Structures
1.
Amino acid sequence: MSAQRKVFFVSDGTGITAETLGGTLLTQFEGVEFDKTTLPFINTPAKARVTIEYIDHIADSSGARPIVFSTTVNEEVRAILRTGRALFMDLFDTYIAPIEGELGQKSTHAQGRAHGMANAGRYQARIDAMNFAMEHDDGQSSRELARADLILIAPSRCGKTPTTLYLALQHGVFATNFPLTEDDLEGLRLPKALQEERSKLFGLTSDPERLMQVRSERRPGSKYASLAQCAYELRQAERLYRRFNVPFVNSANMSIEEIAAVVMQEKELRRQ
Amino acid sequence: MSAQRKVFFVSDGTGITAETLGGTLLTQFEGVEFDKTTLPFINTPAKARVTIEYIDHIADSSGARPIVFSTTVNEEVRAILRTGRALFMDLFDTYIAPIEGELGQKSTHAQGRAHGMANAGRYQARIDAMNFAMEHDDGQSSRELARADLILIAPSRCGKTPTTLYLALQHGVFATNFPLTEDDLEGLRLPKALQEERSKLFGLTSDPERLMQVRSERRPGSKYASLAQCAYELRQAERLYRRFNVPFVNSANMSIEEIAAVVMQEKELRRQ
C-alpha cells in the first residue's frame, strides 16, 4: 500500500457528481491518504488527451496507478480517458445501460446537464430561496414569513443559519430561522412573529458542552458561553418545543447535511 | 413507456450521494417524468424491510418497476433492499470491489461517513467559512479581509452572494465578495479595501439583457434595472477587470455550481 494515492474526478461539467461518488467510496478506506484533484469541463477529445497525458505522467512518477472517477457523457471523450494508466471508474459505463433497458429508451448523451442551467425553473427557485434565507436570517425581518416553508428555531449557535442556507441553496426550500431570546426561553413563549406560523416550525437543540465549545470560540469567557447558561437555554428550549409540539432534533453530533435530511423528512418538504 | 416513473434514493446516511448519482443519470432521459423520493437513514434490517414493503407496494400500484439508487454500506441491509421489485442500482455493489483490489485492502463498511461529522476538521472549516461569508457579504465588513482566500467582485446581481455561500458551505473556501459601486465603475478604480488584496480577486460579469431581467424582478422600472444602466455597468466592470488583470467569467448562462467550479480552477483553490 502506497503512502498517498492520487485520485482524479473527471467530468465534462462541474465535477460535482464525480466528487460526490468518488468521495463517498473513498471514505470506506482508512489509512490511505488520497490526494484528490477535480478536473472539470473535460468536454472535447483534445481536452481528454491532455488529461490522459497528465494522469499518465502522475502514474509514472508516483509509482501507483491513479484512481479516476469519471462522469463524462461523450463516448469519444470517454474512450480516450479509458486509455490512461489508471483504475478508471465511469458512472455512465456502469449504470446507463440498465436504465435504458428499464425505460425502453436511449439516453440523450447531453453534456453538463446535472449541475448546469438545464432546469431554469429549479435553478431560479434555489436563488429565490437563498435570497429569502439571507434577508430573513436570524429573525432580521418578519416580512413575508408567510412565504416560508420552514422556520428553524433554536438558541444561538445550534446550527440554524448553516442549515437554512444549505436547504435553500441545495434544495430550493424557502427556509428561514428565528432566534429564541432570553425572554422567550424564560417565559416559554414563542416569538410573536411566529405565532401564526406554528406548523412551519422545527427546533434545534444541542448538548451543553458542545454549545459551550461553539460559543466560546466566538466570545470566550462570557456568560453567553458558560456551561450554566448553555445548559439553561437548551433545557428551556426543549421545554418550549414540547409545550408547542414543535418537532426538534439534537444537532450536537450532526453535520449540516444530516440536520437538513432530518428536517426535510420530518416536515415532509420536497426538493425543488 | 409509463407516464411517471417512481425513483427512490435509499441510503443509510443523508441520501445525498444517492440523489447526486441518480439525479445525474436521470438527466440523460428526456420525456420521462420521474417522481423522486429520498429515504435517508435506512441503517437497520428492520428499516430495510419497511422500505421494501413500501417500494413493492408502489411497484404493484403504479404498474412500473421503481428505480432504486442505493448507497447503503451494510451488507445485511443491502441484501434485503435487493429483494424488492425494483431496478436496484447500488453504488457499493459496483465500485467497492475494484477499489479494494487496487488498494489491496478491504473497505471498512462504516455507515454515514460521506456526509456526517467523520472529518471534524473539514466540517469546522466549512462552518467557519460560512460564518466568514455571512459577515463579509457584499462588502459589509472589511475586517479580516486578509483572511479571505477569494474575493468576488461584480456589479449588483451578477451572482456574487450565492457563489460565495456555495464555495463556503460546499468546499470550506474562505470566500467573500465586494460590490463595485458607481464611483468604482466610473473611475475604473478598485474599492480601497481591496487594493492590498488584488491577488485574491475574481470578477463576474453578465449579459445586459440577463442582468436587466434579474434586476427587474427586484426593482421593476427602476434606472437600476434599465438595459442602458446594466450595459454600462457591465462594460465598465470588464474594463476594470482588464485594467487590474482580474480574471473574470460571464455568469449569464452559468449555474452557481458552474461558476464555483470555474473560480476554483482559475484561482487554484483547494477544497477543505
2.
Amino acid sequence: MTALGNPAGQQTVRRHNLSLITTSLAAAPGSRAQLAQRTGLTKATVSSLVDHLISRDVLVEGPPATAGIGRPARPVTLNPEGPMALGVEVNVDYLTVCVLDLTGQLRCYRHSVAENRARSAAEVIEQTAELVGEVLRELGRPLLGAALALPGVVGADGTLSRAPNLPGLTGGQPGRQLAAALGLPPLLVDNEANLGALACLRAEPAVGPDFVYVSGEIGVGAGLVVAGELFRGVNGFAGELGHVVVAQDGPDCGCGGRGCVEQYAGQEVLLRTAGQPGLEQLEAAVAAGDPAALDAVARAGSALGVGLASLLNVMDLPTVVLGGVYARLFEAITPSLTAQLDRRALAPRGAGRLSRSPLGIDAAARGAAGAVLDRALRDPAGIPVLAGV
Amino acid sequence: MTALGNPAGQQTVRRHNLSLITTSLAAAPGSRAQLAQRTGLTKATVSSLVDHLISRDVLVEGPPATAGIGRPARPVTLNPEGPMALGVEVNVDYLTVCVLDLTGQLRCYRHSVAENRARSAAEVIEQTAELVGEVLRELGRPLLGAALALPGVVGADGTLSRAPNLPGLTGGQPGRQLAAALGLPPLLVDNEANLGALACLRAEPAVGPDFVYVSGEIGVGAGLVVAGELFRGVNGFAGELGHVVVAQDGPDCGCGGRGCVEQYAGQEVLLRTAGQPGLEQLEAAVAAGDPAALDAVARAGSALGVGLASLLNVMDLPTVVLGGVYARLFEAITPSLTAQLDRRALAPRGAGRLSRSPLGIDAAARGAAGAVLDRALRDPAGIPVLAGV
C-alpha cells in the first residue's frame, strides 16, 4: 500500500491482461474488437497489448476480411513463425526432441536410439545436446523455452531423485546440465508419464478430465489426471504403476519388491518372453501371427490389467489411455487387459474407457513442448527475449 | 442487481457472518470484543449475531472474568448443552450410535451386535431405529442433524450403490428409510471408511493433511485424505483397498476378482485362519501368545502391507492410520505389515508413517456425528429448529 507499490501493481495488471489476450487467441482467432468483447478490456488497451505482442513476434495480424458490414476486421492470431517450444525426452533406450510452434503444430522432430542405462550423465547429456543442437540449427528460430521429460521421480528443484533404469543421471539435475551444454536457461523438468498425460489432455479432449495415462517403456509409469490437473502426490511419487503388485511371491524387482507390474509387462520382459530382440521385430511377429509373440503380449496385457484394476480401485478414474509400447501393440494387448479390468475393476468406466494415445512413444516429448507452450500462453510477459540461432 | 435482490444479499451476508462467529469459537472461546477483533466485524454486528445464536441455544455466555483492566469481559463459548449431532454406523455385524455436543465431546454411545448380512432393509432399519430411539430418549435434547455411515459405495443422492456384504440394503436409500422411521429430516450418508478418515482428521491433527485411513471390518476399505480433503474419485469408488490385488491367482473374491486384499486380511478370513469364533477371542489368543493366532495376524498384516504398498505407490501418501480390527490388533499386526511397506513402497514416508486410530471401531460413527457438527459450525443458520424430544 506504499507509493512504491503502484508501478508493480500496474505491471501485474498488464501481465494478467497480456495473458487474457494469448489464452483467448489460443482458443480461437479474433479481431481487436472481438478480443475487447471477449476479455472485457477496452479497445485501446487491447490494441496496446496486441501491438506489444506483435512486436515480440508472438502475434500476427492478417489482411482485412471482406465479409460483413462496416470497417473490415483484421484477424489476429498466434504467430506460427514466432518463437517456439522445445520438448526433449531422455529415456532408457532412446532420445526424442520435438518443437511445437505457438499454434501447437509440430515443426521439428528427431528420435534416436541411445543406450543410456550404462552411461554417465556427461555421456547422456552430450548426445542429447548434439541432437537438440541439430534441431535448433534446422529450426533457425528463437525459443519460448524448453522442457525435459525423464523416466523417474523429479523433485521440485529438478533433481532426478529416483530412476532405477538411469543410474548415471540419478541424483543429478539433468535439466541444468543440458541447459548449460546448450547455453539455454534451465529447462522445466518432469516425469515422462506426467508429461505424456499432459500431451494427451491437450491432444485428445474427448478423453475427458479424469484418466490414467499409461506410459509403457523399459519402465512402466502412469500419469494421473484428476479434474484436468496432474495428481503428483506429496513427494511427486504418485502413479508408480510399474511397482503395483501383481503377485506377492512373483519375480524379484529392481525396486526391492517382488511381483511388480514391471516384472510382467515392462518392455524388456515382454521382448524376452516373446523371444524378440526389439520392438520392431515384436510388432512384425505379432502382425505375422507368431504364437509366442501373441502369447507374450497377452500375458503382459493380463498383468497390466491386474495392476490397472488395483489402481482404478484406489483412484476411481473412468478412463485408461495406453501410451508408449502399449499404444504400438494396442490391438494385440487389449483383449487380455480388458478381461482383467472387466473382472476386477469395481467403478463404472466411461464410454471411452480404454483408448490408445495417438502420440505413441513421442507423447512425453510432445507433452514437454506443450508444457512450455502452456506456460508461455498463460504468461506471455515471461517469454524470454532470445536472439535467433 | 435488482432491488428485489437486496434482501437475499443481506441474508447471505448474515449467514456468512454467523458462520464466522461459530468457526471462530470452535477454534477458541472469546468475548464479544475479541470476536469483533478476530472476525473484522463491528462490535454491534457481533452482538446481534451472538444474541441470535444464544437464543438458538448454540452459544452461551459465561460470567464476567475478573482479571485485567476495564470492564470485565464475558467469555462466549459453544453451548455444550445445546443441540447435538447424531452419528450412526450400520455395518455388516454391528450397529453403533453416538452423539457429540457442539464442543465435540462424546455425550452418548451405544454399540450393538447385529447380523445384518442376511437381513432385509426393513429388519436392519427397524433395529437401528430402536437403538437410535433409546439414545435420543436418554439424550432428551434437540438435534443439529444426523449422519449415517455405511460399508459400501454411496452415491451423491444417498443410494447405497455397492455393498456386497449388505445385500439387503444395496440399491436402497437407508438414510431416507432411517429418517422416515425416526421422524427426522434425511440423514447425511457416506462410506464408513471416508467418515472414519474424517474422524481421524478431526481427532488427530498430528497425522497431518495427507494420509490413508484403513478401515478393517468384514470388508476392508480406505479413506483417502489429500491436502486435508477426502479424495472420493469420480463415482465415489476411490479407496477400495479391499479389492487391490495381492496375488493375481489367489482365492476367489466376492467382487468377481481373485486374490484381493479382503481374501487375506478381511476380518472373517482372519478369524477362520486363526481358528477363533470372534474378535474378542482372537485378541485374547494373541495376548496369550497362541501361535496359530499370531501367525494368522502376521499373514493378514503381510497381505495388507502388500496392498497398502500398491496404494501408496499409486497415491504417494506419507502416512497410514490403521482403524477398526487393525487398530485393535495393532501391536501384533504391525511387524509383518511394516516389513512389506519398507520393502515395496517407494515414496518417503513421514515420521508418524504408521499409526493406530485411537477411535477403533467407533471411528465411522464418530466421523458421522463430526460431519454433522462441521456442517452446523460452517452454517449455523442452517441448524433446524427442532422441538426437544
3.
Amino acid sequence: MQPAASPDIDGIVERLSRGAREAARALARASTAAKDRALRDAAAGLRDGRSALLSANRDDVERARAAGESAAFVDRLTLTPDRIEAMARGLEDIAALPDPVGETIAAWRRPNGLEIAQVRVPIGVVLTIYESRPNVTADSAALCVKTANAVLLKGGSESQATSGAIATVIRSAVAGAGLPIDAVQPVEGGREVVRGLLRRDDRIDVVIARGGETLKRTIMEESRIPVVKHFEGICHLYVDAAADLDMAERLCLNAKVQRPSVCNAIENLVVHEAVAGALLPRLTAALRASGCEVRGDAATRAIVPDVHPASDADWDTEYLDLILSIRVIPSLDEALAFIAAHGTGLAEAVVTEDYGVAERFLHEVDAAAVFVNASTRFTDGYEFGFGAEVGISTNRLHARGPMGLRELTTYKYLVRGDGQVRG
Amino acid sequence: MQPAASPDIDGIVERLSRGAREAARALARASTAAKDRALRDAAAGLRDGRSALLSANRDDVERARAAGESAAFVDRLTLTPDRIEAMARGLEDIAALPDPVGETIAAWRRPNGLEIAQVRVPIGVVLTIYESRPNVTADSAALCVKTANAVLLKGGSESQATSGAIATVIRSAVAGAGLPIDAVQPVEGGREVVRGLLRRDDRIDVVIARGGETLKRTIMEESRIPVVKHFEGICHLYVDAAADLDMAERLCLNAKVQRPSVCNAIENLVVHEAVAGALLPRLTAALRASGCEVRGDAATRAIVPDVHPASDADWDTEYLDLILSIRVIPSLDEALAFIAAHGTGLAEAVVTEDYGVAERFLHEVDAAAVFVNASTRFTDGYEFGFGAEVGISTNRLHARGPMGLRELTTYKYLVRGDGQVRG
C-alpha cells in the first residue's frame, strides 16, 4: 500500500478531475460548429503564437541537451516553424472531419410501439498520458474537442514548457468558441498527481496511454480506470506454399523495411517449406540490400547459410528496428500455431493464391487486423479510412485495432414511447 | 501487498486459465450447428439428470438452512422440477437465437482496392462471478457457448453442489457436440483462487460480475481484467409541467411498484411545481394503495402533508424496495441538474407532451437508456429485443445498458488485398 497522498496532491487531483467532469457535461451539448470553430481558431492561434511556442520549446530543448539526451530524442522534441504549421494543419483537418457525436448506430421499433435508437455520445472525460513529441498535445486535445470529450493531457516532463504553451493556445480558442475552458487541461505535477488521477474512476472514464512499454505497464498496474493502449506489436507475414513469390518479396520488404520503428511492422517471417528454397535466397538478399539484418532457424540457415541463427527470444522480441527473424514450417497448421504462440494480436498477414488457405488464415488468426495479400503496415486509422488516428488498440474490448474518432465515443439508447408500461 | 499465493492456488489458477484459453481457441472455429447442438443436448441432459440435480440441490439447501439463512435466500437457492424445466427451456431458447459470431458489422473498399470487413468474433475467455440462484450457472454457460467464449463459472459457495452438477451436465453436452470440454469450467476453491484469476489478464479477457455491491466493489478493486458490471441503479422519473398526468401516474406506478427489487425500478420521482398540486395527492394515494412508502421534500409535504420527510441520504439510496422519494422542482434545468447529481447513469425517464422538453431530456441526460413517456422498467435485454440478457452494464465502454449476445463479442478486421504495399 502506498502512503496517502499529501493534501496538496489531493487538491490538484480533485480540482483537475472536477473541472474536467463539469466541462464534459457542458461540452456534450456543444454544436459541431462550435467545436470546429474552436479547432480552427486553435490552428490560427498556433500560427500567431509561433514565436512564443518556439521560445518555450527552446527551454525544453536546452534542458534535454543539458541532461545529455540523444540527438534523436532532441530532434523529436524540437519545434520548427514547419512543424508548427503541420500541427495547425492537423487541427484544421480534424475540424473538417464528420462529427461522430449524435450519429445513429441502429434504430428499431418494438412490437409495443417503443422506438429505440442507439446513438453515439462522447465517452466523457479522457486522461491521455504520452511521451516526447509535442504535437501529440495538439493532436490529443483536438481529437477530444471534436468528439466532445473533456481531456486531461499528461505529456512527458521533457516537453512540459512546449506542451503547456500549446495547451494555452488551445484553451483560449476553446473558450473563445463558447466552450468550457476546462475541456482541455494540462496536468502539471509529477507522478503522484498521475497516480491520484488514475484512482478517480468516479470522474475519469478512460485513460489513453501512448509511449513506452514501461509507462504503459505502470499505468495498467495503477489504474482503476479502463486503459486503451497497445502493447508491443509482434506481427508476422506468412508466405504460404501457394504464394506468388514476387508479391511475397514485395510485401515482406514493405512490412519490414518501409518504417521498422512502428508497431505494425513485422518482426517474424514464417515461410512454408515448399517455397522456402525458391524464396529465401532472393528475399534475404533484398532485405540485406535494404540494410536489414536477417536471423533464421536451422531450416532457414540450411538454405541461406549466412543468416544469423535466431534464438528462442527472437520470436518474442519487438525490435522496432531493421531486424527480421525467419522460420520455416511444414504446414498451414504449424504457421497458425506459431502465430498464436508468438503474435501479440495486432496485425498478421498471409501471402497466398489458395482461397482455402486465405479464408482459414482470416478466420483462425486471432488479431485486430488480419490481411491476405497486403502489408501489415496498413493497420492504421488513416489507411483504414477513418480520417484521424487516435491510436491502435491491442485491447479486445471497446476499441480493437486502428482507432479513429468513433473510438472516442460510446453510445446511449434513446427510447421514445407514448405511455408504455411493462407487463 | 498481499502475500504470494501458495503453489497449490497458483496451480489451480494456472490449470483453469490455460484450459479456458486453449478451449477458446478451438471454440472460436466451432460451427453454429455444433454450438446449438451442445445447448440442446445440455437441455436434454438437465431433464434426464433431474434426480441427480435435485439431490445435489438438497445438500446446498440443507447447508443453507443449517447456516440460518433467510426463507427468501433458501427459496432462491431451491431447485424444483419446474425450475429445472425452465432452465432447460432457457438453453433451448438461446440455441434458437441467431449466432452473432461472424456477423459483418461494416465493410468497405479503400481507393487502393483493399477490402476491409469488420466482423464479430468471440471475446475469448470470460470469467463470470455471481451469487445465489443456480440457474445463473446454466444461463451464463449457455450464453458463452452460443457466442463461442470459454467461460469460468464462479458461483456463490451456497449453491456449489447444485452449480457443480449443472456444470457437469453442460460440460458433457459440450464434449458430446465435439467442442472442447473446458469451454465450460466451474471454479472450485475459495477467494484466493478468484483473486489469482483476476490477475491473469494474459489469459482472461473479461470479467462479468453479477451480485451484491460488495462483491462487485471487491472485484473492481482486485481485477486487472476489464470488468463488465452494473453498480446501483438510482433511476428517476421526471414529470414535466406539460405531462399527461394520467400517464404520469401509470408510468410512476409501473416503474416503482411492478418489480421494486430490480435495478431499473425508480427510486426518485421529480415533479415540476406546475403540476405537483394536481398530481401528488392522487399519485401518493395510489402508491400507498400499492404498499409503497412515500418520502418527500418540503414542497411535496406542503401538498401532501402526511408523507415522510426525505433526508439528504434518500436521494442517493437504491432501496430495491417499495419506497419512493419525491422532489418538487421549478424548472427542467433543475430537474436535469438533480438527475445529473443523483442518477447512476442507468435509466432515466421523462413524462411530457412538450416536444422541446422531450428532446432536451433525451440528449442532455447522461444515462445508458433515456425514456420519453415510457417506464424505465423496459431497460432490459429482452424488452429491447435482444432475445437474451447477459446483464445490464453501467460501464461506459464496450457495453452500455442492456446486454444481449452481441455484447459477448468483440470484432476483428479482415482485410483482403491483391498485393498492396504502403507508400
